[in-house]
């Protein structure tokens, strides 16, 4: 593949990563808003449905974001010339961020649902 074609493909992959990351953060923001507004009013069945839906949606988009970024980094490494600034792979940092945000949302829902005086 010619360099400019590879660069164009890498740019397309980066755009896909940004879209997936945006969708992921939209999902977790929506979940946090639901937790804040209605978390203490949800029945157990509703809570299970919301948490399962959140886990599936956030899991898919979080993992997809990590995989797409990993693909982009591989392409960027192929394009890089030896004189350029060295690339920094933050795939693991991105994975940690996705996991911490996911767990933070679940803890936030739990804290909203916890009644004063509960142990």
Describe this structure in words.
With 119 residues, the protein is mostly helical. The chain has one domain. It has 3 helices and no strands. It has helices at 3-38, 44-79, 91-113. Helix 1 packs parallel to helix 3 (91-113). The termini are far apart. The model has no long low-confidence stretch (mean pLDDT 88).
List the SSEs and their pairings:
Blueprint: H1 3-38, H2 44-79, H3 91-113
Stretches where pLDDT is under 50 for at least 5 consecutive residues are none
Q: How is the main sheet built?
A: none
The residue-averaged pLDDT reads 88
Span of the ends, CA to CA? 62 Å
Structural class by secondary-structure content: mainly alpha
Q: Give the proportion of residues in helices.
A: over 70%
